[in-house]
Amino acid sequence: MASNNEQFAQAASEWDLETLYADLASAKGKRLTPVEKLHLRGLLCGYSPAEIAERLNKSVKGLGVDLCQTLYHYVKNLVGRGDEKVENWRNITEWLQEAGYKTQSSTQCESSDCLPLEFLIKRANITIDKHKVIVDINLRIVASSPSEPPGIEDIDTNGKG
Fold first, then answer.
1. Confidence of residue 110 (pLDDT cuts 50, 70, 90)
2. Residues 140, 123: contact at Cβ < 8 Å?
3. Contacts of 102 (CB under 8 A, 6+ apart)
4. What confidence tens digit (pLDDT) does each residue in 118-134 have?
5. For the chain, what is the largest distance between any 2 Cα atoms, rounded to a whole number of angstroms?
6. How many angstroms separate the CA atoms of 56 and 46, rounded?
7. Which of 58-64's residues contact partners 24+ apart within 8 Å by CB, and which partners?
8. pTM above 0.70, yes or no
């Protein structure tokens, strides 16, 4: 049987799991458990709670109760929807996508003399303070050429690294 980190691993290719885990840990007040991370990755891969339970040989009802008492609660707090009811498990992925946790890549350059770039907006916060709009963006740019391995440069508009 695959380890917890290997199950639903494809979520890492579409979601910024590192930032999401850290932010959910803040919403929870402590780190997510390996099981919570596993269930979250299953949801992010598009599996329903019933499908996740089936793949993990767990009780569908038990997994549903667990999600309602843990991940759903943390995600609602994280995205500012604490008073809303999760009508459908897909709400979780929609809310996290709206909050900027899903990776977004740019159109690839077609010219042979330019480097293909991939942009990943890790997080964007917009606040309004005394007639000023403040946009805080954490951006990752990946540039690669056929002759060199991909290079990654992190740009943090806050200067926090």
1. very low
2. no
3. 14, 15, 16, 96
4. 656 656 777 777 778 77
5. 56
6. 15
7. 63/39
8. no
3-state DSSP assignment of residue 126? strand
Q: What is the residue-averaged pLDDT of the chain?
A: 80
Of residues 156 and 65, the one with the higher pLDDT is: 65
- The pLDDT confidence band at residue 111, using thresholds 50, 70 and 90, is very low
Token pair in block for residue 79: 């995205």
Give the whole-angstrom CA distance, residue 95 versus residue 135. Answer: 19
Q: Is the pLDDT of residue 72 over 80?
A: yes
Per-residue CA distances from 114 to 14, 108, 110, 144 (Å): 25, 10, 8, 10
The count of residues in the chain is: 161
Q: Is the pLDDT of residue 20 over 90?
A: yes
Contact in structure between 48 and 42 (CB atoms under 8 Å): no
Q: How far apart are CA 106 and CA 116, in angstroms?
A: 9
DSSP conformation class of 15:
B
Contact 74/28 with Cβ under 8 angstroms?
yes
- Tokens describing residue 48: 């329903």
If DSSP codes are grouped into helix, strand and coil, which group holds residue 134? strand
